[in-house]
C-alpha cells in the first residue's frame, strides 16, 4: 500500500484531482456517443446495401420471369412411400398424392400482398372472401366479381375478395392458362397463384398455402368466408350475422357452416373421396364443416394454420380443417343458413329459384354462373316483396 503511494507520483496526483476525474467522465461519455452514432450509421448503411441487393434480386427475377415472387426448389417425389403396406392397392391418383404428400412449399406465381392494405392495416377488412378457383373457371370468377364477391362496404364494413389457384394442364396450355390469370390479376388484383397442380387431391395443400399467405399479408382480418366458386353466398347477410354476434372483432374462435359429425371415411376405391385404411385408420372423422363454404374468424384461421404444421396432409380438405380444429380443442358450429345440398324447397311445385327462398340464407351450393347472376340481382331487387311468401324452410 505504502509502496503504491510512494510510486504514485505526478500522474496519481493528477488523477486524484476532481477536475481531472470530471474530464475523464466527459471524455467517456463522448466516446460512447461517437460509438453509438457510428454503429447507427453503419447499420443504416448495411441495411441500405441489403435493400439494394434485394431490389436487384427482385429486378433480375422480374426481368427473367415476369411474375416471380417467392421461389422454392421443385419438390421431389418421395419414392419411399411405395414401400408402405397397401400402396399397390391404392388407385393410381391416390398413389400420386402419396408421392407428393410431403410437399408444402411452391413458387408463388401471382401475389396480391396489399390486398388487405398491408399486414398492419388488415384489421380494416371485416370479411375476406377466399374462393378456391382453378385457372379454367374464368366464367365463374367473372360472375362472382359482379355479384356476391364484389369488393364493397356493407353497413360500413369492408368486404374484400381473393381467388386462390394452382396451375392446370401442361406445356403450352398451362402457359396459356397462366397468362389468362396474369391478365385477370392485372385488371382485378384478386388472384393468388402457386405453381402446383390444381387438382381435387391438392385442395388441402391449397388451403394451407392460403393460410400461410394470410399470416404474412392479412394477419388481422376479422372474418373469412372460405368457399368454392360455384356457391351462392349471401355476403350481405354474412356481414350482418357476424356484426350482430358478440365479440365481432374476429379475435375469438368462430367456425361456422354445415357440420358433419361422426362421418365415416369412404372406403369404396372408385369414389373420389376414397381414403384407404392405411392412411386414415379410425372409422369416423372429427367434426368438420362441408367444404362448399364456411365462415371463420381470423383468430381461428391462424390457429388452424399453426395446427396444420404438425398434421400430415389428408386429401379431403374440409375433413383436414376439422382435424386441425380438433387438435386445437375447438369445435365447428352449425348454421341453418348454410346449405351444402341446395335449398330445401317445401314442394316440388314451387320454383326452386324463387328469390324469396334465398333472401335469408347464408350460403347455398351449387349454382351455375348464369343462375348466380340472376339470383343475386333478384335478391337485391329493392322491389322484391317476400313478406307474404312462405319461406319458413329458408329461415335462418
Ligand atoms: C423400400 O424398402 C426396401 C427394403 O426395406 C429398401 O431396400 C428400399 O431402399 C426401400 N425403397 C425406398 C425407395 O426407400
Ligand atoms: C378397387 O379394388 C378392387 C378390389 O380390391 C380392385 O380389383 C380394383 O382394381 C380397385 N380399383 C381401383 C381403381 O384401384
Ligand atoms: C399436387 O401437386 C404437385 C405439384 O404440382 C404434383 O406433383 C402432384 O402430382 C399433385 N397431386 C395430385 C394428387 O394431383
Explain what the structure shows.
The chain is built from eleven helices and 14 strands. It is α/β, with parallel strands linked by helices. The chain has two domains: 79-336, Spore Coat Polysaccharide Biosynthesis Protein SpsA, Chain A; 339-380, no CATH class. Helix 5 runs parallel beside helix 11 (369-379), helix 7 crosses helix 9 and helix 7 (203-217) crosses helix 10. The N and C termini lie far apart (94 Å). One 2-acetamido-2-deoxy-beta-D-glucopyranose is lined by residues 89, 91, 269-270. This is Hexosyltransferase. One of its GO terms (cellular component) is Golgi membrane. It comes from Takifugu rubripes.
Please outline the helices and strands.
Blueprint: H1 2-7, H2 10-16, H3 18-64, H4 92-100, E1 108-110, E2 125-132, H5 138-146, E3 152-154, E4 157-167, H6 171-188, E5 191-197, H7 203-217, E6 223-228, E7 231-233, H8 235-244, E8 255-257, E9 259-260, E10 288-289, E11 293-297, H9 298-308, H10 317-327, E12 333-334, E13 338-339, E14 363-365, H11 369-379
Parallel strand pairs: 2-4, 2-6, 4-5, 8-12, 13-14
Antiparallel strand pairs: 1-5, 3-4, 6-11, 7-14, 8-11, 9-10
Helix pairs in contact: 5-11, 7-9, 7-10, 9-10
Organism: Takifugu rubripes
Protein name: Hexosyltransferase
Keywords: Glycoprotein, Glycosyltransferase, Golgi apparatus, Membrane, Signal-anchor, Transferase, Transmembrane, Transmembrane helix
Amino acid at each position: 500500500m505504502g509502496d503504491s503511494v510512494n510510486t504514485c507520483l505526478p500522474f496519481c496526483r493528477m488523477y486524484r484531482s476532481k477536475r481531472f476525474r470530471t474530464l475523464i467522465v466527459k471524455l467517456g461519455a463522448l466516446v460512447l456517443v461517437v460509438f453509438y452514432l457510428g454503429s447507427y450509421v453503419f447499420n443504416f448503411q448495411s441495411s441500405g446495401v441489403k435493400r439494394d441487393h434485394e431490389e436487384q434480386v427482385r429486378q433480375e427475377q422480374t426481368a427473367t420471369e415476369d411474375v416471380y415472387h417467392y421461389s422454392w426448389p421443385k419438390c421431389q417425389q418421395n419414392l419411399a412411400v411405395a414401400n408402405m403396406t397397401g400402396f399397390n392397392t391404392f388407385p393410381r391418383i391416390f398413389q400420386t398424392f402419396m408421392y407428393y404428400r410431403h410437399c408444402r412449399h411452391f413458387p408463388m406465381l401471382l401475389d396480391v400482398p396489399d390486398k388487405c392494405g398491408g399486414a398492419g392495416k388488415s384489421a380494416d377488412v371485416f370479411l375476406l372472401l377466399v374462393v378456391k378457383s382453378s385457372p379454367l373457371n374464368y366464367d365463374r370468377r367473372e360472375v362472382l366479381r359482379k355479384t356476391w364477391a364484389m369488393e364493397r362496404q356493407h353497413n360500413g364494413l369492408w368486404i374484400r375478395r381473393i381467388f386462390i389457384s394452382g396451375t392446370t394442364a401442361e406445356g403450352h396450355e398451362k402457359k396459356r392458362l397462366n397468362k389468362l390469370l396474369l391478365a385477370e390479376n392485372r385488371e382485378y388484383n384478386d388472384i393468388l397463384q402457386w405453381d402446383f397442380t390444381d387438382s381435387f387431391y391438392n385442395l388441402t395443400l391449397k388451403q394451407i398455402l392460403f393460410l400461410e399467405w394470410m399470416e404474412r399479408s392479412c394477419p388481422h382480418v376479422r372474418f373469412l368466408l372460405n368457399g368454392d366458386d360455384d356457391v351462392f353466398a349471401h355476403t350481405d347477410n354474412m356481414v350482418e350475422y357476424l356484426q350482430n354476434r358478440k365479440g365481432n372483432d374476429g379475435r375469438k374462435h368462430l367456425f361456422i357452416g354445415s357440420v358433419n359429425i361422426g362421418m365415416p371415411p369412404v372406403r369404396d376405391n372408385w369414389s373420389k373421396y376414397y381414403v384407404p385404411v392405411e392412411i386414415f385408420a379410425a372409422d369416423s372423422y372429427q367434426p368438420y364443416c362441408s367444404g362448399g363454404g364456411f365462415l371463420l374468424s381470423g383468430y381461428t384461421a391462424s390457429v388452424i394454420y399453426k395446427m396444420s404444421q404438425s398434421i400430415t396432409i389428408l386429401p379431403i380438405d374440409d375433413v383436414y380443417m376439422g382435424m386441425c380444429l380438433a387438435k386445437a380443442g375447438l369445435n365447428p358450429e352449425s348454421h341453418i343458413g348454410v346449405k351444402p345440398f341446395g335449398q330445401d324447397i317445401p314442394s316440388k311445385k314451387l320454383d326452386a329459384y324463387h328469390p324469396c327462398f334465398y333472401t335469408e340464407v347464408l350460403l347455398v351450393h351449387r349454382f351455375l354462373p348464369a343462375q348466380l347472376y340472376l339470383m343475386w340481382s333478384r335478391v337485391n331487387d329493392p322491389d322484391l316483396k317476400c313478406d307474404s311468401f312462405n319461406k319458413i324452410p329458408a329461415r335462418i
